[in-house]
Amino acid sequence: MHLSSFTGLGLFLCLLSAVSFTSPGLANNHQQSPQVSAQSAILVDVNNGQILYGKNHRQPKPMASTTKIMTAVVALAGADIKSKVKVSPQAAGVGESSMYLEPGEELTLEQLLYGALLRSGNDACVAIAEHVAGTEGTYVQLMNEKAVLLGTETTSFRNTNGLPAAEHYTTALDLALLTRYALHDPAFCRIVRTRARVVESLNGVSHYLQNTNKLLWRYPGADGVKTGTTIAAGKCLVASATKGDRRLLAVILNGSDRFEDARRLLDYGFNTFKDVQTVYSGEVYDRVKVTGGVSDTVPVRAEGNITINMRVDGTDQLEKKVALLRNINAPVYEGQTLGQIIVLLNGEEVDATNIVAGCTIDKSSLLHKVLR
Fold first, then answer.
1. What pLDDT sits at residue 372?
2. Catalytic pick from 40, 55, 61, 65?
3. What is the pLDDT at residue 32?
4. What percent of the chain has pLDDT over 70?
5. What pLDDT is stored for residue 361 in this prediction?
6. Domains of the chain
7. In Å, what is the CA distance from 164 to each residue of 119, 168, 185, 196, 234?
8. Residues in a beta bridge with 250
9. From 28, 192, 195, 365, which residue has the greatest number of CB atoms within 10 Å?
């Protein structure tokens, strides 16, 4: 809910606090942003979605096999991960990067997801699509529909594996959004952090799968996600890493040294910023006047926590703005939304949570009015 949702409802908008963390002499000495080779890149916090770095991150680009992140998202939502899949000749015949499936071979959907996300098997992606949706074309429609539902701005899929195709593109921003969603699925996380795995089909065929994401060996805390390479897209990488309670996500599109780019971005995020909790769930902010109730006012509280990334050098400026109803007619119910608190960092909105009634205020009866 945004401020405009309360327009005309007798609200007041106030600056709850405008606290500058700028230290004397440090305001213009922010750690220099990392230099990356990628044509397009972004660094985001997985927990709250805050953008910590961006370079041409809204510019449409082909994304090669990072497409398979979305392929996995639809598969995990659309079928039982333990269901059995019979590989068609069409799926087995897909070229380029492959886990070397054989026609008629039977594997579980989970095994095929390992093949798609570790070995980057184009054949595995088609087998997944045919199992879940009947045809790859129908499956691609599901991918596009899901992308829209998740809020992407500039993304279009034409296949399940990222092979070059007209109108197959995304942006670093959209790809970060899709991956951030995927990383909330435990099965997806388990697969993409796996360095190597041997998959044996029900027919007794063994497939050795080694993750193409070299960052899993090179960067402490690295736990995903997916590489991609074609002539059109260049070298691409979506990389995540976790340190303590913080998990960061870097997206590299068309970089000459994608692993070094990702390392620089992740180092920048972990070393330059720290988590700061700015709003606490249940924190009481004010009271709202109640008309016709057994009480004249109702206490209001923050519905959720807000934790944001702030620079460790203290040069960020934090603001909190509150939109709150001036009065409300009884009855009022505990948890009812009465406003919103918005957190801004350096003038940009980074997060928000509702302000809700802290208790129920019943409508005043005639007897109660007489007694009052």
1. 60
2. 65
3. 75
4. 90
5. 93
6. 3-24+277-371 (2.60.410.10), 40-256 (3.40.710.10)
7. 18, 7, 28, 27, 11
8. 43, 239
9. 192
Side chain identity at residue 131, one-letter code: H
Binding-site residues for substrate sit at: 226
Average pLDDT over residues 41-46: 97
Question: For the segment 193-204, what is each residue's pLDDT rounded down to a tens digit?
Answer: 999 999 999 999
| Predicted pLDDT of residue 366 | 63
Q: Is 120 a catalytic residue?
A: yes
Residue 132: pLDDT above 70?
Answer: yes
pLDDT of 37 strictly over 80? yes
Q: Are 311 and 272 in contact (CB under 8 A)?
A: yes
3-state secondary structure of 33: coil
From the list 120, 201, 240, 364, the catalytic residue is 120
- Alpha helix (H) residue ranges in the chain: 68-78, 89-92, 109-117, 122-133, 136-149, 172-182, 186-192, 215-218, 258-272, 366-371
In the residue annotation, 33 being an active-site residue is answered as no
Task: For residue 291, list its beta bridge partners.
Answer: 329
Confidence grade of residue 320 (pLDDT, cut at 50, 70, 90): very high
Annotated binding site: 226
| Integer CA distances (angstroms), 165 to 161, 170, 233, 256, in order | 10, 12, 11, 22
109 burial type by CB count under 10 A (0-12 exposed, 13-18 middle, 19+ buried): buried
Task: Quote the tokens at residue 95.
Answer: 């070229």
Catalytic residue from among 40, 55, 61, 68? 68
Task: Average the pLDDT over 305-320 and give the result.
Answer: 94
Q: How far is CA 84 from the centre of its chain?
A: 30
The dihedral over CA atoms of 67, 212, 82, 182, expressed in degrees to the nearest 10, equals: -50
Structure tokens at 239: 């990389």
Maximum separation of any 2 CA atoms in the chain, in Å: 85
Query: Above 80 in pLDDT, residue 188?
Result: yes
Rounded to an integer, what distance in angstroms lies between the CA atom of residue 230 and that of residue 220?
A: 28
Contact between residue 38 and residue 235 where contact means Cβ atoms under 8 Å apart: no
